[in-house]
């Protein structure tokens, strides 16, 4: 059902695609519009800091 909502990127593997939280935030923003403050969200991760930024 997630792919039918127009979420980008397309979800293929549930666990690995949801591990960074971006898709979950997109779903939450669809359910309750304007609740996610997108300028404060890391959409791309720095390779060195990636593990800590995903927390």
Compose a concise summary of this entry:
With 55 residues, the protein is mainly alpha-helical. It has three helices and no strands.
Describe the fold and architecture.
This is Calponin-homology (CH) domain-containing protein. It comes from Rotaria magnacalcarata. Residues 1-55 form the Calponin-homology (CH) domain. The chain has helices spanning 14-18, 22-31, 50-53. It is flat. The N and C termini lie far apart (26 Å). The chain is mainly α. The relative contact order is 0.15. It has one domain (3-53).
Brief descriptors of the model:
Calponin-homology (CH) domain-containing protein; 35% helix; CH_dom_sf; single chain; flat; 55 residues; 3 helices; mainly alpha
- Helix fraction? 25-40%
Amount of beta strand:
under 5%
Query: Terminal Cα separation, in Å?
Result: 26 Å
Q: Low-confidence segments, ≥5 residues, pLDDT <50? A: none
Count of domains: 1
Query: Helix-strand pattern, N to C?
Result: HHH
Mean of residue pLDDT values: 78
**What's the shape?**
flat
Radius of gyration: 12 Å
Name the assembly state: single chain
Instruction: Please report the number of helical segments.
Output: 3
Tell me the total number of β-strands. 0
What class would the helix/strand composition place it in? mainly alpha
Q: Largest sheet at a glance?
A: none
Pfam families: CH (PF00307)
Protein name: Calponin-homology (CH) domain-containing protein
InterPro entries: CH_dom, CH_dom_sf
